[in-house]
UniProtKB/TrEMBL annotation:
Record-listed 4-aspartylphosphate modification sites: D48
Lineage: Bacteria, Pseudomonadati, Thermodesulfobacteriota, Desulfarculia, Desulfarculales
Keywords recorded for this protein, A-Z: ATP-binding, Nucleotide-binding, Phosphoprotein, Transcription, Transcription regulation
Record keyword Transferase present: no
Keyword Cytoplasm: no
Domain Response regulatory as annotated: residue spans: 1-113
Pfam family for this entry, one: Response_reg
An example Gene Ontology molecular-function term: sequence-specific DNA binding
Domain of life: Bacteria
Stated name of the protein: Fis family transcriptional regulator
Species of provenance: Dethiosulfatarculus sandiegensis
SUPFAM superfamilies according to UniProt: CheY-like, Homeodomain-like, P-loop containing nucleoside triphosphate hydrolases
Length: 464
């Protein structure tokens, strides 16, 4: 939009810009222009500094507050160029001194449009990545996982090296991607490398690249992963599997920000943020001489430990239903959910394979299910080999099914349920009301469970 009281100038600018494919509107007063700019979403506004009814600076300041996404180009006479410079300090993108050439107008507008497109693209990418990890991938609100989220939030904004510890299946790469997605490098490449899948000789070439003739079969120069990840983030998974020779080369990258391709007589500069992960005790490996101590300290700048799923049982129902929805959409099936006792089986399973194992099992259950609500009998049928307390045989009669269900609830969940109550009560010094609130239950339901397990605690001040 053009805001200028010179109607001939507005028409001339409209003609020039329209011929280049821009949709252009014009307003001949500052009041009309400001009202239109506040109502609609213009990408670029050409704004005259001197208008009879409203000063251009006043329009600029209002739009900067109310419509910060608009790019404003100031139009000014030679006598007020200094005012235009002042306007740029207040947030204007550029200025054109009257009279200006068509090419000057087109160049200024093109620069503004290009800049806006770049900003919009980056914002969209960050939102897409951030939403992906927040909503679709990393699920949970247990205290253990919330502590990890807080660490991710803090370290993402820095350029520090991060070492992520966690058992297999805890989602180390997902958290690495979350750090990248919330960092200043989010619009650049995220490259993940599983260090356990390559032999030592191949890994060196994969990481640092090689030059032609470096070894048999090297018929041309090859860019390494460090070069591909330039200005972005490199995630080294299973970093404990890197041998000592490559550890020394990786240390140089971290210390000097440079590396040498295999067979080369020169170094290349590296601007890559490194995130590493392991399911091993690197400190113990240092003691054993299997991992360089100096590299360990370089990687361990900001350690993050991911809790295993068995330590965040409160997140299991959310994960179960998240993957249930995911695989129902994928397969086109409609499954209403799980019975309470079936869900309890899933909550109290040990999950040695963590979230990855849970995801795989839910996928299998969806594939095998005919719809409706999943119950213990279906878990027995499709998960029997993975549930240690299940017999290999499936009940054949209703009475056998009821007996199995009663046995599971009494022997497996009874002990856990009682321990759950005792732990909550101890944490609140026997205060039933506070204990119930802590675990997210109504006091009456909490008291009923206490009665079921013959637990007697008295509120402070309550008569015996």
């Amino acid at each position: 939009m053009i805001i200028d009281d010179e109607k001939m100038l507005c028409k001339a600018c409209q003609l020039v810009l329209s011929e280049e494919g821009y949709a252009v509107e014009a307003k001949s007063t500052g009041t009309d222009g400001l009202a239109a700019a506040l109502e609609d979403n213009y990408d670029v506004i050409l704004l005259d500094m001197k208008m009879p009814d409203l000063d251009g600076m006043e329009v600029l300041n209002t739009l900067r507050k109310e419509k910060p996404g608009q790019f404003i180009i100031i139009i000014t006479g030679y006598s007020t160029v200094q005012n235009a410079v002042d306007a740029m300090k207040q947030g204007a993108f550029d200025y054109l001194a009257k009279p200006f050439l068509d090419d000057e107008l087109l160049l200024s507008v093109k620069k503004a449009v290009d800049k806006k497109n770049l900003i919009d693209e980056n914002i969209a990418l960050r939102k897409e990545l951030s939403d992906s990890f927040r909503s679709d991938k990393i699920i949970g609100d247990s205290p253990a996982i919330l502590r990890v989220f807080e660490k991710v939030r803090k370290v993402a904004l820095t350029d520090s090296t991060v070492l992520i510890y966690g058992e297999s299946g805890t989602g180390k790469e997902l958290f690495a991607r979350a750090i990248h997605a919330h960092s200043g490098r989010a619009a650049k490449q995220f490259v993940a490398v599983d260090c356990s899948t390559f032999s030592s000789s191949i890994l060196e070439s994969e990481l640092f690249g090689h030059v032609k003739g470096a070894f048999t079969g090297a018929e041309h120069d090859k860019a390494g992963i460090f070069e591909l990840a330039q200005s972005g983030t490199l995630f080294l998974d299973d970093v404990a599997n890197i041998n000592l020779d490559i550890q020394a080369k990786l240390l140089r990258v971290l210390e000097a920000r440079e590396y040498k391709p295999v067979g080369a007589g020169f170094f290349k500069k590296s601007d890559v943020r490194i995130l590493a992960a392991t399911n091993k005790n690197l400190a113990a490996m240092v003691e054993q001489g299997a991992f360089r101590e100096d590299l360990f300290y370089r990687l361990n700048v900001f350690p993050i430990s991911l809790p295993p799923l068995r330590e965040r049982k409160g997140d299991i129902p959310k994960l179960v239903y998240h993957y249930l929805r995911h695989f129902c959409q994928k397969t086109g099936k409609h499954i209403d959910g799980f019975t309470e006792d079936a869900l309890e089986v899933l909550i109290n399973y040990e999950w040695s394979g963590n979230v990855r194992q849970l995801k795989n099992i839910i996928e299998r259950l969806v594939i095998m299910s005919e719809g409706g609500i999943m119950d213990i009998i279906q878990l027995t049928s499709h998960m029997g080999a993975q549930l240690p307390y299940m017999n290999n045989s499936v009940p054949e009669t209703l009475s056998e099914l009821k007996a199995l269900k009663k046995s599971l609830l009494e022997n497996t969940f009874g002990r856990i349920e009682k321990a759950f109550l005792i732990k909550a009560l101890k944490a609140k010094q026997g205060n039933i009301t506070k204990a119930a609130k802590k675990v997210g239950m109504h006091r009456s339901n909490f008291s009923a469970l206490m009665k079921k397990h013959k637990l007697v605690y008295r509120e402070k001040g309550e008569k015996p």
